[in-house]
Write a structure and sequence with these properties.
Length: 404
């Protein structure tokens, strides 16, 4: 019976956790049981070293969170739309420090914070990659875009055009007049060794640098064209090709005539005929200043001793008479396949060609008539205006039997 009562009451003396607590009174039965107290704190947790380490970890975590926030904000600022309202140029001086560049950009209103720009450029490892030059910064450009422009060196480009057929003296005069180029030119280069072209440059480029580029480009083009020449030409060297190309350049400015004019001179060289080119006379008389003067030749000038005068000398003159472009070089290297030996102006800016001297004389007669008609028309117009001048004896520009 005793065992049965114990089983029915759910108590087990051997298992204290299952033992029922019998309240002493009904009131006590409805009172909540008291919760057990916290376990005693470990002595290791209270150790000063542990406390200090916990403090350090907390500080590090706070610093990491703060740094991350600043980094995020800085990145947003660096890539945000900039304050510039319209395109503006900025000049970065050679040797300028990152700090001075940043200050200059902020002073000009291109960026909102110089220190954000400085730090960001360092983070991107571009502190030593900022290039000198003049840069066009577009409106609303971000600091990131401005950094990319300066690092890439994409400066404002200017251009100077040197036309074909100028003398070296004329080319140097053009470069000296350019207001953007700087510095002096060491000396006037040898005739014909500068390649006429449009050359782009940035502010700060020197005139001598342009001259050096023209010379290098000339050497490359001359070598390239010479390597692709007709091997049957009566021309022995790249220099001879250059000399003849300079004559072709001065004889015609029409692209579709160059190869045919070149063919006339090549055919004459093959037949051991003199070239008889008027521009060679002018260059022999006046040198690099020849193309600043009128093209009219007096009979006395034609007969004057002149080692460039191809009416007097056999073969090519001693040097180029101008700066030929690539097209003139190409024309001489691969001239038209014709039997033409003569050409003369046709009155329209071009020339008429002939294989025989008889046909050439007819072409010359037509050209003389065109010249006469123009003079007569000019005199009639002058008479009508009351500004006519006394008629003077006309000077022959060349002998009647000139080849060109």
């Amino acid at each position: 019976m005793e065992d049965h009562n114990n089983e029915s009451n759910g108590s087990d003396p051997g298992h204290p956790e299952l033992r029922r607590i019998n309240p002493k009174s009904p009131r006590q039965a409805i009172q909540p049981e008291q919760a057990p107290g916290p376990p005693p704190r470990s002595k290791q947790v209270r150790h000063p070293v542990v406390v200090f380490l916990n403090f350090l970890i907390t500080l590090v975590l706070l610093a990491v969170v703060a740094f991350g926030g600043i980094l995020y904000w800085g990145k947003q600022e660096f890539e945000a739309t900039g304050p510039l309202t319209k395109d503006q140029t900025v000049m970065v001086s050679r040797g300028a420090s990152l700090e001075s560049i940043s200050g200059q950009l902020q002073q000009k209103g291109l960026i909102s914070s110089s220190w954000v720009f400085t730090i960001a450029v360092q983070v991107y490892k571009n502190a030593n990659e900022m290039k000198a030059g003049e840069y066009l910064i577009p409106a609303n450009a971000s600091m990131r875009q401005i950094m990319d422009v300066i690092v890439a060196g994409r400066g404002v480009e200017y251009a100077v055009t040197l036309p074909e057929g100028l003398s070296s003296e004329q080319i140097i005069a053009i470069l000296k007049k350019d207001a953007i180029l700087v510095g002096e030119i060491d000396e006037i280069p040898e005739e014909g060794i500068l390649l006429p072209e449009t050359y782009k440059f940035t502010r700060g480029t020197s005139r001598q640098q342009i001259v050096d580029r023209m010379r290098r480009d000339h050497d490359k083009v001359l070598a390239d064209v010479w390597s692709r020449r007709d091997k049957n030409l009566p021309i022995a060297s790249p220099r001879e090709m250059l000399i003849l190309a300079s004559i072709v350049e001065k004889e015609t400015g029409k692209a579709d005539e160059r190869t045919r004019v070149a063919a006339v001179f090549v055919n004459r060289l093959r037949k051991k005929m003199r070239l008889e080119s008027d521009p060679t006379i002018l260059y022999g008389l006046h040198g690099g200043d020849a193309w600043n003067r009128p093209r009219t030749l007096l009979l006395s000038e034609l007969k004057k001793p002149n080692n460039y005068n191809t009416y007097q000398i056999d073969g090519l003159p001693p040097g180029p008479i101008a700066s030929p472009g690539r097209a003139a070089l190409e024309a001489v290297a691969n001239p038209s396949r014709t039997n033409d030996l003569f050409f003369v102006a046709d009155g329209t800016g071009g020339h008429v060609f002939a294989e025989t001297y008889a046909d050439h004389k007819k072409n010359v007669a037509r050209w003389r008539k065109v010249e006469k008609d123009r003079r007569d028309a000019a005199n009639r117009a002058a008479t009508t205006d009351g500004t006519a001048t006394p008629k003077t004896k006309s000077s022959k520009t060349k002998p009647a039997d000139s080849s060109q």
